[in-house]
Structure formats: C-alpha cells, structure tokens
Write a structure and sequence with these properties.
Radius of gyration: 26 Å
Oligomer: single chain
Order of helices and strands: HHHH
Shape: flat
Strand content: under 5%
Number of strands: 0
Distance between the termini: 52 Å
Length: 135
C-alpha cells in the first residue's frame, strides 16, 4: 500500500483563484435615487453651514441641491410609474375574453413595458460603464 504525499505547492498555483466578476451596471433607478439622496444630504450639510455662517451662498447651495435631488428622484420615479401604468392598462386589456385580450393591444403593451425596462437598464449600464459606477 502506497501513500501519496503532496509536498509541492505548485498545484495550488494552477487553480484559478480569481474572484467572480462583479456586475458593473446598476439599474438606473437605483443610480438616480443614489444621486438624489446625495443631493439631499448635501442640502443638509449646506443648511448646517448656513446655520453656523449666515452667508446667503449656503442658502443658495441648499436650494440648488434640493432642486437637483427632486429632479433625480422624479426621473427615477418616471421609469417605474410608466412601466406600472402601462402594466395596469395591460391588465385591463388582458381581462377581456379570447383573442382580443392579447392581440394586438395586449401584445403591444407587454412589449412596450419590456422596452421601457430594457431602456432604463441600458441607459444605466451605459452610464455605469462611462462613469465607472458600480464596480
């Protein structure tokens, strides 16, 4: 009976020990919500600065940061509201009987919802790759 003993660590070096690749893209709504949260936190910081140093510039910074945060939050909400609204209309269309419940209106609405979702994902991916966000 023979026993094998591994004394060389070269076999460990042959293994691929790289971590799995992290996804780089984020859905656009998460990215926009992150921006809006950062703007709102920035507004708090500039409000605190205005409280300590009553200079009008801090108040103006706060107004611009709050406005930018609201715009980003609105853009994030638009994608979901649009997809949800189209899906609600699609649910009513699909509640009809037979062939007319799907063809052509239900089919077009389903395709439009998927197109909206793919568009937001594509824009998020393009932004993430261009701005190196998320990875």
């Amino acid at each position: 009976m023979k026993h094998a003993t591994i004394t060389d660590a070269a076999l460990i070096g042959d293994a691929n020990l790289k971590p799995a690749a992290k996804p780089r893209g984020r859905p656009i709504h998460k990215m926009l919500v992150s921006f809006s949260a950062a703007y709102f936190v920035g507004a708090l910081v500039t409000d605190l600065a205005y409280w300590q140093v009553p200079d009008v510039v801090w108040e103006r910074f706060s107004i611009w940061l709050i406005a930018a945060g609201l715009v980003m939050a609105g853009l994030a909400a638009i994608a979901y509201v649009l997809a949800a609204s189209l899906s609600l209309v699609n649910a009513f269309v699909h509640s009809r009987d037979g062939y007319t419940a799907v063809v052509p209106t239900g089919l077009m609405l389903s395709a439009l919802v998927v197109a909206v979702l793919l568009l937001t994902a594509g824009v998020a991916s393009a932004l993430a790759n261009r701005l190196r966000v998320g990875g």
